[in-house]
Amino acid sequence: MLPAVHRAILGGTFDPPHLAHLVAGEAAYRQLGVDVVSFMPAGSPWQKEGRAVTAARHRLVMTRLATGGVPYFETDAREVTRDGPTYTFDTLATFPEDERITLVLGADAAAGIRSWYRADDVLARCRIAVAPRPGTDRGAVEEAVGERLDWLDVPGLEISGTALRRRVAEGFSIRFLVPESVYRYVMTYRLYREER
Ligand code: ATP
Ligand code: MG
Known about the structure:
By secondary structure, this protein is α/β, with parallel strands linked by helices. The chain has a single domain (about 5-190), classed as 3-Layer(aba) Sandwich (Rossmann fold), CATH 3.40.50.620. Helices cover about 35% and strands about 15% of the residues. The protein is built from eight helices and six strands. It has a six-stranded parallel beta sheet with strand order 3-2-1-4-5-6, sandwiched between helices. Helix 2 (about 55-65) packs antiparallel against helix 8 (about 180-190). The radius of gyration is 16 Å and the shape is globular. It starts with 5 loop residues before the first strand and ends in an 8-residue tail after the last helix. Bound molecules: adenosine-5'-triphosphate and magnesium ion. The site of adenosine-5'-triphosphate (ATP) has 18 residues, from helix 1, strand 4, helix 4 and helix 7. Adenosine-5'-triphosphate binds next to helix 1, strand 4, helix 4 and helix 7.
């Protein structure tokens, strides 16, 4: 029998994907020994209602551009092709039961995991690997995640989608904070010009 696949899933809005996402994925691959890191753009992010999220097709293409050329990275479109809000619990049910799954989260997302739909079931199914993020306290993450936690060793990177969108809207460059291909895509399609 083939050994079970160990997959890391790095979900996000990826609006846009940036270097901190890739650094977290790289750490998951190197430090957890996963076989593959699946970057999974969210369809209609249920915790982001209230601000207009960029069309899924743009976020999907940008995620493909960001992960392209790295043999152990892939972009998984299953959430963007599903209608309605995307719950991690439902997404997990679409993977074979014998796959080992580790969710890779930034500390801010991990600290909020108890608010997720069926959080206990999610925690029973996966391990949770967390990249420290400036501004989020480790204790809050440890309390929320409990036993199933692995810390990733990554440098603290103060990069966020929110700040990148704001920079573009204000006329500042985001070059070198995102992969070159993503930078070119954002410029070509004039994304984020109107962000408030
Ligand atoms: P936004 O500001 O729009 O929320 P974001 O930078 O937080 O964008 P997301 O797509 O929301 O990006 O994040 C996807 C995942 O990556 C989340 O688990 C988030 O915590 C993590 N992440 C994003 N940026 C960082 C960072 N600088 N350091 C560590 N983790 C990060
Ligand atoms: Mg975020």
